[in-house]
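Is this the right way to post structure tokens for a design question? Let me know if I should format differently. Anyway, here goes:
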């Protein structure tokens, strides 16, 4: 099933904001966690799929891997290339669709994706591509938001203001279940799972609102699409969501995730 028009819109959506601000603040510890479980990386040929602005790619390259990052949003790839140049890191970046990667079978020793591939609409196809480009005996490293938890709750809250997705589009949160990953990847990989949590702590819900509506493409795009009372309702609902995690002077939003390490059969 093809979702080309949907992916075109999603590419523009994810590239509409400086996502690196969100990634650097909210994903750094998750990136560290995943990369630390894949060492040693010296000399390994690594692909980071749906790489965003390069958080995994940068860490892997700093550990001596030969890294290729790819994402379907040209704006994010442009940012990632600039960051690599600033940091003196030799990383190859390509604009590419996670459902149709432009790499030969078995090209990589390590294949990673951190809360990126899970947004591809055709999930079996995306899973097949992760397996296809990983060489026999190679390693897979994934991070997906848990099906139940703080980020899942936020996505469900956003869905209250979004039109329904096209028929046949897989839910990103499905990737947060071990059984589902076994279904998609178990024939190709021997899989191990571990649960993690990356809570976001802040003093002000307004601070998080500002970050997300200026720097997180999906929320920025959604807010811009709303008008009048509906727009006001959305802002109130988001602030209410963040405030629901307040504990005294601090808002502490849990952000549970599933970390997957696989070995290619």
């Amino acid at each position: 099933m093809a979702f080309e028009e949907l992916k075109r819109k999603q590419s523009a959506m994810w590239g509409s904001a400086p996502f690196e601000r969100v990634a650097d603040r909210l994903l750094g510890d998750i990136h560290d966690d995943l990369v630390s479980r894949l060492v040693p990386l010296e000399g390994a040929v690594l692909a980071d799929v749906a790489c965003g602005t390069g958080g995994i790619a940068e860490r892997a390259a700093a550990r001596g891997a030969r890294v290729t990052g790819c994402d379907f949003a040209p704006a994010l790839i442009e940012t990632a290339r600039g960051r690599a140049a600033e940091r003196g890191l030799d990383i190859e970046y390509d604009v590419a669709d996670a459902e149709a990667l432009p790499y030969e079978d078995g090209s990589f020793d390590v294949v990673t994706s951190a809360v990126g591939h899970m947004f591809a609409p055709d999930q079996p196809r995306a899973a097949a591509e992760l397996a296809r480009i990983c060489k026999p005996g190679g390693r897979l490293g994934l991070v997906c938001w848990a099906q139940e938890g703080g980020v899942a709750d936020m996505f469900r809250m956003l869905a209250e203001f979004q039109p329904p997705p096209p028929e046949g589009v897989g839910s990103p949160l499905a990737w947060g279940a071990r059984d589902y990953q076994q279904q998609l990847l178990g024939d190709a990989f021997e899989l191990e799972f571990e649960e993690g949590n990356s809570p976001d702590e802040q003093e002000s819900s307004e601070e998080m609102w500002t970050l997300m509506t200026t720097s997180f493409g999906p929320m920025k795009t959604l807010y811009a699409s709303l008008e009048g009372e509906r727009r006001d309702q959305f802002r109130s609902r988001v602030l209410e969501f963040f405030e629901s995690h307040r504990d005294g002077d601090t808002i502490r939003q849990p952000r549970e995730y599933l970390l997957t390490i696989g070995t290619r059969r």
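Format looks fine. Someone answered above. Worth noting: The mean pLDDT is 97. The chain has one domain: 4-148+166-201+256-264.
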